[in-house]
Amino acid sequence: MNIYINGQELLLEPEQAILATALSLFLNDDQVKRSFAVAVNGDFVGKDSYSNTVLQSNDSIDVLFPIVGG
Amino acid sequence: MSLNIYGQELKSRLLIGSALYPSPQIMKQAILASQSQVVTLSLKRQNPADKSGAKIWQYIQEIVEQCQGHLLPNTAGCKTAKEAVTLAQMSREIFQTDWIKLEVIGDDYNLQPDPIELLNASTQLIKDGFKVLPYCTDDLVLCQRLYDLGCQVIMPWASPIGTGKGLMNPYNLETIRLRLPQATLILDAGIGKPSDACMAMEMGYDGVLLNSAVALADNPVLMAKAFASALDAGEQGYVAGIMQQRQTAHPSTPTLDTPFWHQN
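YS: structure for the whole thing
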């Protein structure tokens, strides 16, 4: 099935349809170690829920990192 | 005299942004020179190929540690209460703070806050335990509503974000100060020069939040120092009690015993 992470399409096998798995496929080694937060379809998902959040086809995931701001 | 934000006492009345500086090094020098203890920042998407963000985040952490300061994440770019609430929740997890500079933009041209969405977002965030610092227009009734909801800190704009136009409507800002004496009022956005910040403090505002005025100066570090001095001057002027304006001239020099050439 297809999902979208930060606007990029990602193809997942059925057994990979878990948020923690999708993040591990999308993020590189450097990013995994850094501070980030996640929303699925516009709803915040806390870190302790990554491994039990089941993804559906066409889900849209946002992975956000700290940046400068005013 | 200190600034109180949701019970947190701060030595400086300046809140400063971390964007638009010529380099991360100058950002760090300028923020430290400003003596601010509150640094704003944000969250954005970043794709795996982009490695620029990590260093900036490291700099900001160093700054906050050095000035014994606080992070103030914003919800920049949000246009609905739903987006802003989600972004605030994400920020709280990363930055470990309940403080949120709430921005909900209603117009792309002047980046004017949407008052309806702002109130809706504030309501939800306060219920969820956030300490909300809403960025709003200089509308008295909106500020009153935000305060009534539980926003102890209100941040009306001086003028649209990034314009540097200064205080567009001093009357509105003074009225907000007069009518909300218990609120912590921080003038946010549109500040262009140190005298703008000084004017806000002379009105009795509790603080000023700015970014572009320092970051886009020819010499951001020197400008940061100038703003620190301007806030001090304005605050001292307000506390000292500014004289009443008078319609007619009054001689400063005593007129008693005026010399002979005035006697004809």
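YS: worth flagging: The first strand of chain A starts at residue 2 and ends at 5.
IM: good catch. Also The two ends of chain A are 39 Å apart (CA to CA).
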